[in-house]
Backbone:
């Protein structure tokens, strides 16, 4: 069964330790700008919005990639094959969730690969706001509940995923 | 030779504001090796570039922005940075630290330190971005409040994640205790560093970057960090951390009032009858809407408040800390919590230190009560205790330096000189810095901390929570079994000189690393061995894995800052307490009757510090042992060296 990340914004304090941990795992340096998880903050509205790849069932990024650089690993999780990526940004444009980005240093696409099985962000979160769960109907509901408050704040209609 | 160490961004910017020139330079190897970063390196820079002849508000003063090797790497709680300069409020060493996300971002933008010299001909701000430092026009930003400036900068650079350190109108107008507001609602609050920034026509600093920080030995560093985090997560500290997470520092209002140490009525007493009205439960139940944390911090003491309706309706915004609740609350006999939220936020936006501002208003209220000032002096404001309308109005007039607000904008020491008569008796300060929220009549060692703190009367250079909250195992481990009982006695002066010296050295490293006092001060988890295990694998400075070298570095920083003050004329007579805290026994509350034995503690402190009891001057042998020969030579020329 495929896994996904579920984030509870109610317990998230916006400390961004997940970003540091992600950058350590993927770049061997402390560099939140290269993290594949993004915690966006709006201090004047006291908003914290986590952005990370949703591991879509029907991935727009993969469909948009002209070089087939976005491929599945053994766990069924999509990752970017760096040598194949030409940095064209088609995937970034295609993803409507902001789940894939261009790395500011190597200028290639990068997305959450769940650390190939044991996500560093989950271990780094001392507030236990991030969890790895299975992509079942129940799991998807849990993930949605975690960000429900944002939908209310932004007055967005939410639908069953 | 290029800068060899990891853990640092590797560069600093030396900026001549007068000429508008930015010089980007490689970090100095010896700064890192001998002074670590933050306060230590700032002390070295200011020792070399400012002195007795430097007018703090002239272009000659030098403002240092500093980070440390632990800033922005994985270590909780390490999202901090600091500013230092010769202080305009006190005329002596001034440093102030702030949390948030700005410090790490300065490093990701490629800089460990920024040195500001001179004065810009017109208002400017500094943008740090991916290895570039650029001075930009700030004429549109001048005069505006701090949050508006941050919004405008983010808009201008199309970057909602831009991190900022900004002064408000108070800093531009020369209020002597202006702060630098960091990331909207945090502040490098104390000692008037915002005033120095304003005097340089520098409105702020903005940073954004994607240059990472590397570790010398990443795996070893992460392992060392895990061990330190395990210590922090020991079940022993679950209650302490739980309190910080659920209430933040507001919990201290209740805890401190219980031991009779909550400054009340301009420090007249240490017990406030209405403390519950401004305390943790009231805030949590009615106003707290969320928890916040600084960069990479697992403690998360910051909270967000909202006042839904009424004249003080506001928010969401960063909630006032313990010190602000004390300064605008108990200290002014004001139990209107919503007014305290309001004044705290106004101080963030106007750019003023909440402690000095609230303490100066409390001082004026006592002068009013005593009849030393009347409506003629206050431009018609009634300064009776707890008069919220007058307090709220005074905050605005101080920021604008209007009328009586101008007198109070100079802090209690100078205001007392202007007002004259007996006013000085009610000015509760050391070296010109208004006392923060403690009281040595209920906690002996904080008296020594106030007296010896290089920036004046506050707790952050050496407060000991060991006897305040009672940690027998830790006291025994650090100071030995035979001293434990006396040290744990909060009203005994015995061994407090040794304890305060030890903690001052420990905090010298905390302030240079740069990390937060939480985790070190309270709960008292991190100690010298923390630095011994994390600094070497992070930076590659192998000497730092030697505990003796670590402790020497700590002492070196402490002595250099002290020597900086000696050169400006500070001696034992300035390392003293105000008359109220020294001679008026605590009149009410659990600590009733208490008085500190400051002279006894000072004697012992000087002995442990390697200084002369009579003058406070350091011994040449001590300075030489620490590699501070250049300091010894300079002080010797001025006859400021202890006789041996």
Residues:
């Amino acid at each position: 069964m495929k896994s996904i990340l579920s984030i509870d914004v109610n317990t998230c304090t916006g400390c961004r330790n997940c970003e540091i941990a992600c950058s350590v795992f993927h770049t061997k340096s402390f560099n939140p700008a290269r993290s594949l998880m993004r915690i966006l903050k709006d201090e004047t509205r006291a908003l914290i919005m986590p952005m990370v790849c949703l591991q879509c069932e029907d991935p727009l990024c993969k469909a948009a990639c002209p070089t087939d650089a976005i491929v599945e690993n053994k766990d069924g999780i999509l990752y970017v094959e760096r040598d194949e990526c030409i940095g064209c940004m088609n995937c970034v444009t295609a993803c409507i969730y902001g789940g894939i980005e261009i790395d500011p240093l190597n200028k290639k696409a990068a997305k959450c690969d769940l650390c190939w099985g044991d996500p560093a962000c989950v271990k780094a979160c001392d507030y236990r706001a991030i969890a790895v769960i299975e992509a079942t109907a129940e799991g998807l509901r849990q993930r949605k509940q975690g960000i429900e408050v944002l939908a209310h704040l932004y007055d967005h209609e939410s639908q069953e995923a | 030779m290029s800068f060899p160490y990891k853990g640092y961004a590797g560069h600093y910017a030396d900026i001549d504001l007068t000429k508008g020139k930015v010089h980007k330079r490689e970090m100095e190897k010896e700064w890192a090796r001998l002074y670590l970063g933050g306060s230590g390196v700032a002390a070295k820079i200011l020792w070399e570039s400012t002195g007795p002849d430097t007018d703090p508000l002239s272009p000659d003063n030098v403002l240092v922005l500093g980070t440390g090797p632990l800033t922005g790497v994985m270590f909780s709680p390490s999202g901090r940075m600091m500013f230092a300069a010769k202080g305009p409020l006190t005329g002596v060493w001034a440093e102030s630290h702030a949390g948030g996300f700005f410090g790490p971002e300065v490093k990701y933008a490629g800089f460990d330190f920024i040195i500001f010299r001179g004065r810009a001909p017109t208002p400017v701000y500094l943008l740090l971005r991916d290895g570039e430092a650029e001075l930009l026009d700030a004429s549109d930003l001048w005069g505006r409040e701090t949050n508006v400036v941050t919004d405008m900068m983010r808009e201008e650079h199309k970057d909602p994640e831009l991190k900022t350190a900004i002064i408000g109108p108070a800093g531009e107008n020369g209020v002597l205790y202006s702060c630098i507001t960091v990331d909207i609602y945090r502040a490098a609050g104390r000692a008037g560093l915002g005033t120095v920034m304003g005097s340089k026509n520098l409105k702020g600093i903005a940073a954004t970057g994607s240059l990472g920080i590397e570790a010398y030995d990443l795996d070893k560093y992460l392992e060392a960090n895990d061990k330190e985090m395990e210590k922090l997560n020991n079940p022993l500290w679950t209650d302490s951390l739980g309190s910080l997470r659920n209430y933040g520092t507001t919990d201290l209002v209740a805890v401190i009032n219980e031991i009779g140490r909550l400054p009340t009525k301009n420090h007249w007493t240490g017990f406030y009858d209405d403390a519950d009205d401004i305390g943790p439960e009231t805030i949590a139940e009615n106003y707290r809407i969320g928890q916040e944390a600084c960069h990479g911090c697992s403690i998360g003491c910051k909270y967000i408040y909202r006042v839904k309706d009424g004249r003080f309706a506001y928010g969401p915004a960063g909630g006032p800390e313990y010190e602000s609740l004390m300064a605008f609350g108990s200290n002014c006999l004001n139990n209107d919590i919503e007014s305290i939220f309001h004044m705290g936020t106004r101080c963030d936006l106007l750019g003023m230190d909440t402690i000095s501002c609230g303490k100066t208003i409390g001082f004026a209220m006592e002068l009013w009560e005593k009849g030393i000032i009347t409506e003629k002096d206050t431009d018609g404001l009634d300064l009776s205790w707890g008069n919220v309308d007058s307090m709220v109005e005074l905050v605005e007039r101080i920021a604008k330096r209007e009328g009586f607000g101008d007198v109070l904008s100079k802090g209690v020491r100078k205001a007392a000189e202007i007002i004259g008569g007996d006013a000085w008796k009610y000015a509760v300060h050391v070296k010109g810095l208004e006392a923060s929220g403690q009281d040595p009549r209920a906690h002996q060692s904080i008296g020594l901390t106030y007296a010896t703190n290089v920036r004046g009367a506050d707790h952050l250079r050496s407060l000991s929570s060991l006897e305040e909250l009672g940690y027998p195992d830790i006291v025994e481990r650090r100071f030995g079994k035979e001293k434990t009982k006396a040290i744990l006695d909060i009203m005994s002066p015995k061994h407090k000189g040794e304890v305060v010296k030890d903690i001052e050295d420990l905090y010298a490293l905390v302030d240079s690393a740069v990390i937060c006092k939480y985790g070190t001060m309270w709960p008292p988890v991190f100690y010298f061995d923390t630095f011994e295990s994390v600094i070497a694998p992070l930076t590659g400075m192998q000497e730092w894995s030697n505990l003796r070298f670590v402790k020497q570095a700590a002492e070196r920083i402490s002595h250099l800052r002290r020597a900086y003050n000696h050169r400006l004329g500070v001696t034992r007579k300035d390392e003293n307490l105000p008359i109220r805290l020294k001679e008026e026994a605590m009149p009410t509350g659990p600590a009733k009757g208490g008085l500190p034995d400051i002279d006894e503690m000072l004697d012992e402190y000087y002995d442990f510090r390697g200084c002369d009891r009579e003058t406070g001057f350091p011994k040449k042998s001590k300075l030489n042992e620490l590699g501070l020969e250049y300091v010894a030579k300079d002080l010797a020329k001025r006859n400021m060296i202890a006789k041996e």
